[in-house]
């Protein structure tokens, strides 16, 4: 699994699988089947630049993201590690969380869907109160493994989503989610996925995409 040094430096992210009850609206969740053959102990990326460009090739088109290692080093290193080891290849975007008051805005979610075969040990959640980043239009962010950790599922925002930012100053501080980069190409693809039909659950609409969008491969650009 993860090397002891990284485990000490980078502690996690989880989401309820999409074949379970859907998560509360506006909160990132989990599901999918992957076909990649990851190594047991992939190397930890070294000497990454401050901005790491990554291509997310999907069956609906390509999204390019610029990951902010300078401000979110733990989260960026973790994401690149999953990408370098092909753990995202063959997974899906499986969730379209549309804002009720503005259905063309919200976020999409994809990744390993808590698939045990693809998981690396969790990393420490880097909240927006620590990184200074925010959930604005085009932000890529990590979903939770626990309220304090992240792993291998991520979201991309359409429109500003300040509800996903950390809310410091409370007795039980809401750390929100770990924003760590921005889409620089392919927002049309993100919007198309957000608009995808979703399935019903118990007679009520859910956020689970009826035909999940395949993530063909994720590689450094």
Level of helix content?
10-25%
Per DSSP, the total helix count is 4
Question: What general outline do the C-alpha atoms trace?
Answer: globular
CATH architecture: Beta Barrel
Mean pLDDT: 86
Share in β-strands: 35-45%
Tell me the radius of gyration: 16 Å
Low-confidence stretches: 1-22, 30-35
How are the elements arranged and paired?
Layout: H1 4-9, E1 51-58, E2 61-68, H2 73-84, E3 92-99, E4 102-111, E5 123-124, H3 128-131, E6 139-146, E7 149-158, E8 178-185, H4 187-194, E9 198-201, E10 204-220
Antiparallel strand pairs: 1-2, 1-10, 2-8, 3-4, 3-10, 4-7, 5-7, 6-7, 6-8, 9-10
What do you see in this structure?
By secondary structure, this protein is mainly beta. It has one domain: Cyclophilin-like (Cyclophilin). Helices cover 14% and strands 38% of the residues. It has 4 helices and 10 strands; from the N terminus they run αββαβββαβββαββ. It has an 8-stranded antiparallel beta barrel with strand order 1-2-8-6-7-4-3-10. Strand 3 and strand 4 (102-111) form a beta hairpin. It is globular and about 45 Å long. 50% of the residues are buried. Mean pLDDT is 86; it is low at 1-22 and 30-35.
């Amino acid at each position: 699994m993860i090397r002891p040094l990284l485990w000490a430096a980078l502690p996690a992210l989880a989401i309820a699988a999409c074949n379970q009850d859907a998560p509360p609206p506006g909160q990132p969740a989990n599901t999918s089947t992957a076909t990649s053959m990851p190594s047991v102990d992939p190397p930890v990326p070294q000497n990454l630049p401050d901005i790491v460009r990554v291509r997310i090739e999907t069956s609906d088109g390509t999204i390019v993201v610029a990951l902010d290692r300078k401000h979110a080093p733990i989260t960026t290193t973790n994401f690149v590690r999953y990408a370098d080891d092909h753990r995202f290849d063959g997974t899906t975007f499986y969730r379209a969380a549309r804002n009720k008051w503005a259905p063309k805005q919200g976020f999409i979610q994809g990744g390993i869907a808590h698939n045990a075969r693809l998981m690396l040990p969790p990393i420490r959640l880097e909240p927006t109160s620590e990184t200074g980043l925010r959930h604005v239009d085009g932000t890529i962010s990590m979903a939770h493994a626990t309220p304090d950790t992240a792993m291998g599922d991520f979201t991309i925002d359409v429109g500003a989503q300040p509800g996903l930012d950390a809310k410091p100053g409370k007795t039980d501080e809401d750390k929100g989610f770990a924003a760590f980069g921005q889409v620089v190409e392919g927002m049309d693809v993100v919007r198309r996925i957000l608009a995808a039909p979703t399935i019903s659950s118990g007679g009520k609409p859910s956020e689970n995409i009826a035909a999940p969008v395949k993530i063909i491969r994720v590689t450094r650009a």
